[in-house]
Design goal:
about 325 residues; alpha/beta; FAD/NAD(P)-binding domain; 5-stranded parallel beta sheet; 4-stranded parallel beta sheet; 8 helices; elongated; binds flavin-adenine dinucleotide
Amino acid sequence: MAPAGTVTPQIVILGAGPAGLSAALWLHKLGLRPLLLEAAGQAGGMLNENLLPNDWVLGQVGLTGPQLAGRFAGHVAGLALAPRLHCQPSEIRRHEHGWRLALRNSGDAESIDAAAVLIATGTRPRAQDALPGVEGLAAAAPYIVYGPPAFAGLDGLRGQRVLVVGGGDNALENARFLLDQGCEVWVAARSRFRAQRAMMEAVVGHPRAHLLSPVRLRALQPAGGGLRVLLDAAPHELVVDRMHVLAGYAPNTDFLRDALPPALFAQLGLDAEGYLGVDAAARTGCAGLYAAGDVCNPLFPSVVSAIAQGALAAKTIELDLRQPPATP
Ligand SMILES: Cc1cc2nc3c(=O)[nH]c(=O)nc-3n(C[C@H](O)[C@H](O)[C@H](O)COP(=O)(O)OP(=O)(O)OC[C@H]3O[C@@H](n4cnc5c(N)ncnc54)[C@H](O)[C@@H]3O)c2cc1C
C-alpha cells in the first residue's frame, strides 16, 4: 500500500483483454491505482471471439472463450476496477509526473494523468490486407468470411465446397471442423503450413481435404452460384461455395503513431509487422510505457501468456515507480 499522505499513482491500461485485466488485478494488489480503458463495448478481448471450449487454461476445464472472459472481467469488476468501455486515447503526451492522455469517444473532451501506461491492445484478424493484389475481392465479398466468424454456424454448411486461406492453427482447425460436417475442403497457404502437428494430422490424408502450398490467390469471380478462384499454382482454378480467410493477426499498434509525438513513437521500435518490442520485464523502448499480451508476443499468442505478461508488467511498473530504471 502507498504510505499514508501520498497519492496512489494511477496506471492507465489500454485494452481489457486477458493481459490488461490481469495487469489491473496485479496493480491493484500491489497498491497502485489501475484504470482500464477499453475501445470495444465489452471486456475480454479476443476471448469473446472463441466460441469453443478453451481447454488450454490450467484449471478452467470446458469453458468457452466468452465464459472465461466473464470470469476474468467479473474478478476485476468485483474489485471496482471495471474498464471504461468505448474509450481509447487520441493523444499520449509526457507530463510532469508521467503521462497525460486525451481520450477519444468520451463525449466531452477529457484528459487523464498516469504515472505509467501499459499497452495491452492485442491483435485483430487480418482481413483484406491478407489478400494483397487479389482481383475481384469486392465482387466476391458475399462469399468470403474473415477471421473468427468463420467458426460460427458450421453445421449449416454440410456438403459444401470451402476454400480456407491460411496455414496456421486457426486455418487447419477450421478445415477439420468443415471436414467433420462433410464439406470438401481446400486449404491454401502462401508458404509452408505451420499449424501444430495434431491439427495437421487431422486434415492431411483425409479424402475430402486438399492442401495447397505454396500458392497465392490471383483472382476471384462469382460464377453460377459459386466462386471461381484463380491460383498461381496447381490446380490453378477452383470453384467453391465459400471462402474462409484465417490468415493470421495484426497487432493493434497503429493508433500509437497518431497518439504519440514522433520522437517517442520512434523509441518504441516496432517490428516490420507492427508488434511492440519489450525487454524481459515488459518495458518498451520508451521509458514509462510498458506492453503485455499479444500486442508484443507474435511467437506465443495465448490466454495464459497474456495473463502472465500482464502480471509481469504490473510488477515491473510497481518496481520502476519505486526506483526508476537508469536512462541511457
Ligand atoms: C477464434 C479464436 C480462438 C482462440 N483460441 C485460443 C485457445 O484455444 N487458447 C488460447 O490460449 N488462446 C486462444 N486464442 C487467443 C487468445 O484469445 C489471445 O491470445 C488473448 O485473448 C490475448 O489477450 P490480450 O489481452 O493480449 O489481447 P486481446 O484479447 O486481443 O485484447 C486486447 C483488447 O484491447 C482492446 N483495444 C484495442 N485497441 C485499443 C485501444 N487503442 N485502446 C483501448 N483498447 C484497445 C481490444 O478491443 C481488446 O479488448 C484464440 C483467439 C481467437 C480469435
